[in-house]
Amino acid sequence: KDYYWKTKHLRFSQRQQYRLNNKEFLATANAEYRLLKANAEAAMSDAEKENYANLVEIRDNATALFGYAWHIDHVIPLSKGGTNAIDNLEVVPASWNLSKNNLNSDSFWG
Prior knowledge:
With 110 residues, the chain is mainly alpha-helical. The protein has 5 helices and 2 strands; from the N terminus they run H-H-H-H-E-E-H.
């Protein structure tokens, strides 16, 4: 743990240098991700949009009931080939969703 804090400035400068040296690659990757996300949303049928609206209502009700934020999360992240299909979405606590980033594809509910 001490090593982590002692070398924090090195990691920061290495990330900065990587970003400077790979601007084009990072811009392309970012654009591809945005396009993937936009296409996934555009491809939703009316029934899927209705199901998504139901998930929004569940999320809002859970937030009001439990007193902390909830998110609509992708079980398989878009960045790993997931879609916005209703069977790939679930309502989860925001803290759990934010902590996992896109590192796993585990369902919160099992």
